[in-house]
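Researcher: Structure prediction, please.
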Amino acid sequence: MPLKTICLLLLYCSATIAKTTFTFKGGESDDDQRQYYLQQVLTLALDKTVDDYGDFELVPRAEGLNLARTFRQSEARAYPNFFFRVSMTDDIAANYAVVPFPVDRGVSGYRVALVKNDKVNSLCGKEQLDIASYSVVQGVAWLDGDILRANNLRVYDSSSYDNMFEMINGGRMDLFFRAINEIKFEYETKSQALKGLQIEPCIALYYPLPRFFVTDKANQANAERIYQGLLRAYNDGSFQTLWMAFFKESMIWVNLKQRNIIKLENPFIKKLNKDYEQYNFVMSEFLEVP
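Model: Predicted structure follows.
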């Protein structure tokens, strides 16, 4: 074999070996687009670090799994180099390798409810104690459910993302609180088939809800790569551009300025380092009435 051919083969093999496979959580259903933004964020962070760490490929895994099953798959190391986003707790921080950057910039702590159309104005003028009489549905293993329960709300867990919308539409549950950066797309998608869905217009909940990427605790080196990539993307503005492209329209659409914002406590992050807060979005333009 000619020397030139051998050299080309060696270069090809070297490039192939150098490529690192990252896996990330896919959607829970066909129209669950929540993971698409996270895929774009991971791609951005990895692109920013190619010169230091080498090439990569990003592959979806755990499609169709709810969060509880995703935790179990992660603990079993079912997928190589697996990253998924979670709402942080002190317990998760102690047991996972954490990328301490708030990928939604803190805005997911603002929550607006989906309701059935015959209850659309039932919360106008209500306060926290009044909401306690309503039934609330949240996903199994979602921290939101634990936070709402800790604040004396009546919460029921569902293992199916799609079923929660159907439960509201069918009147089996009263409220399904969703993040202000996600609810517009979800409503527009789900209400095409579920004609009873409406957006409650009068209140919003708020609680601190930092959301980070996490991975197996032994995978600290790759977690550091993603963290460094996110810092670079934040410092050059490309992260903010991506974030705004996905979420600004929904955040305007929910009209926070006209809502009574009910503040709740998050008792699950008492020990969490608060350095991440410097990357949170400043919400003043969405909250202050001109």
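Model: The first strand starts at residue 20 and ends at 25.
Researcher: Thanks, that helps.
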